[in-house]
Amino acid sequence: MLGPKCSRFGSFEFLAERGELRKNGRKLHAQHQELLGLELLIEKRGIRVSRRELTEKIWRNTSVGENNLNVVISRLRTLLGDDSQNSRFIKTVGRDAYCFVADVFERSFESSPRELAHTLCLRVRHGLEVRTPQSVKLSLDLARQAVAADPTYSLAYGGLASALIVAALLAVMPPGDAFPRARAAARRALENEPDMADAIVSEAWVQLCFDRNFAAATKGFDQALALNADNPFAHNGRSLLLLALNRPEEAISAMKAAWGADALSPPLNALLSDAYYYNREFDKAIEQGQKAVEWNPAFPVAHACLGKAYLQAGHGSEAIQHLELACHQSGDSCAMLGLLAYAYGKNMAPASVMPIVERLLIHAETAYVPPYFLGLAYLGLGDAEKSLAWIDKAIEENSHWVLFLRTDPAFDELRSLARFGDLIERVYIQEGLRKSEPGHASQQAGQI
Questions:
Q1: Are residues 90 and 143 in the same domain?
Q2: In the chain, which residues have pLDDT < 70?
Q3: Contact at 8 Å (CB) between 288 and 301?
Q4: CA 440, 443, 447, 448 torsion-angle sign
Q5: For the chain, how many structural domains are there in total?
């Protein structure tokens, strides 16, 4: 079986299918966007590649600013030690194109099913770092291919569990579909490797977000961190758990630990900003959010976190600017549209809210739309009754977003309402009880 293709140029090796760029045999830390750009340039080496082609390759159908490609090419040149004025690898052609000018030697490796599955798992991880609906859907497809390539490979099931969880977190799939499947995949991984930290983390995420069983989730995250103290997804999960328990200062510490474990991760750079936001440290949230945007200007989650912080700090125009970017860069994901609608309402632009609400309601007829974000949109309009009705639906479907209700500053205006207090109580009354209900995910654990 032919395995991944290796492209060699100068002292570099590029394995596109594995998402790896090496120099003198040492793996370089390259982001997903740089690798996609390099893949296209090498594929068309010696041929002019337009900025439009590169943008479509890197961001697919997502609208991004012109400067985003400049940043990617600049970072790629830095990785290669290249010089735009005297290029050895990437030459600028005119004002709107590039060309890969180095000689490239290619060869394919013979690959076993295990090696193929492993290569696919590496690509899953890269896709999840991008955190757009498109990249998550691609990661899900790759993870399923990895399981099909080697049904005995625990890492493939672990990758599938992670992809399903992120799919739920980004509203790519309904929680009632994604989380039970993630649990099943994690348990398949643990059958062969009982101490697989990533799979333990995945099951803890399901216990936190879907079961609302905080004791079990705490045990799972602690167990995973005992096996691997630098597991960023475990620290990230503990941060959300602490927010659910209304302990935002400790959540910041957990996110700092996650960030320290992988400071180069775009999601963790952005989510550290979010942790400050939930503790109402808006200046720090803005500062960290600006760093996240500077690090990766095309990352929608970074713009969303920064936009939320700006809004609560009273900078409405800046908030809308970044939330609009988050919508464009995510392909108008339902979550980002809901945040933008809320910001429009709070920034005295209510006429812009209802078109988004109507768009989401139409979309909900054929695809999943998280009710939480419809609730947020109506909150922006000041319609507490409709907002609470949609939040009620979010609690009923076991949306993980309701775990933020205790701490999110956006809901401060509802805290004096008895019905809002009742809704929060419902989130925590259900802790640990859902496992015994008919049709609960634990009874569906065999389906992946």
A1: no
A2: 1-4, 61-63, 109-110, 261-264, 430-446
A3: no
A4: positive
A5: 3
The count of C-alpha atoms lying within 13 angstroms of the C-alpha of 88, restricted to the half-sphere facing its C-beta, is 12
Residues 300, 269 contacting (CB under 8 angstroms):
no
Where among 149, 175, 194 does a domain terminate?
194
Distance between CA 233 and CA 248 in Å, rounded? 18
Alpha carbon of 135 to those of 26, 30, 129, 256, 402: distances in Å? 26, 17, 9, 25, 25
What is Dmax (Cα atoms) for the chain? 70
* 190-198, long-range: CB < 8 A, 24+ apart: 190/154, 191/154, 192/152, 192/154, 193/154, 195/227, 196/154, 196/158, 197/224, 197/227, 197/228, 197/231, 197/234, 198/158, 198/161, 198/162, 198/224, 198/231, 198/233
Compute the chain's Rg from CA coordinates: 22
**What is d(CA 372, CA 79) in angstroms, rounded to the nearest whole number?**
41
Query: Tell me, what's the pLDDT at 39?
Result: 94
Whether residue 401 is contained in a domain is answered as yes
What contacts 144, CB < 8 A, 6 or more positions away?
Answer: 160
As given in the structure block, the two tokens for residue 268 are 């963790």
Q: How confident is the model over 303-318, as pLDDT tens digits?
A: 999 999 999 999 999 9
Residue with tokens 């139409």: 362
Do 98 and 164 sit in the same domain of this protein? no
Residue where a domain terminates, one of 194, 220, 239: 194
Strands (E), 97-179: 97-100, 105-110
Q: What SS3 class is residue 119?
A: helix
Please give the structure tokens belonging to residue 189.
């991984």
- Condensed to tens digits (0 to 9), the pLDDT of residues 389-436 reads 999 999 999 999 999 999 999 999 999 999 999 999 999 875 544 443
> At a CB cut-off of 8 Å and minimum separation 6, what does 37 contact?
54, 57, 58, 72, 73, 76
